[in-house]
Amino acid sequence: xxxxxxxxxxxxxxRQKRKNVMSFIMFMLGGGVVGFIVSSGMIERLSxxxxxxxxxxxxxDVLFGILAIVSFVLIVWxxxxxxxxxxxxxxHDVAGEDGPDPNNRLVxxxxxxxxxxxxxxxxxxxxxxxxxxxxxxxxxxxxxQTFLLSVVLTGAVSxxxxxxxxYATIHQxxxxxxxxxxxxxxxxxxxxxxxxxxEGEKWIVYRAAYRSFKTVNALMLIGILLxxxxxxxxxxxxxxxxxxxxxxxxQKAAYYREVSKLGRL
Length: 265
What we know:
single chain, mainly alpha
């Protein structure tokens, strides 16, 4: 005897089919538009008058200025949060049954800020070193040499400040969570923290990790397509596409490896 699907399941199937059809049509339209632009020669005409070097006085001064401003804002935000936690005495005991500790929530926010701060300052410092090492500074005017030196020093100081603030933030986290301390220096620090969580917290981590996996999975494809567009407009650059493809493969391999451990694959 055949079992009929519930009405709700049929509705879900219909909506999914409509969604798949619309996605297929959008991909077809997008491919047609891209093919038309490439074949018509519009990209070559567009790239001839386009300047991809953001500058006001020196090359890439706009880029490094934006990175410096973002780093400064994150550093000040991180310092203000830590000082607020240091000034507060004993308030982490008043939450009780009314809800989560507000100071613990602030610690969680500061952990996010410190991570973002480290990523931005690290990228800024690496970009500064890569840019200055790729040009002959001796042949540049003295004003530009000063600019290049200030870019590298600003990146190094910002990165050092971000590292110090990250350790200070982790210290505040351990202060408010003595039963679940986090040691970033230890090889298994994050794994040990995960083992100390209860089942509800682990479920939250699982859900967040899978959401992050799906997001990165989509961003890898978008990144490859963006670098493809860059190669079409300016010049062929295979390295970024290859690196993203390798990272994508490694991400998939890590995911399937964990799934296979549970015998689900």
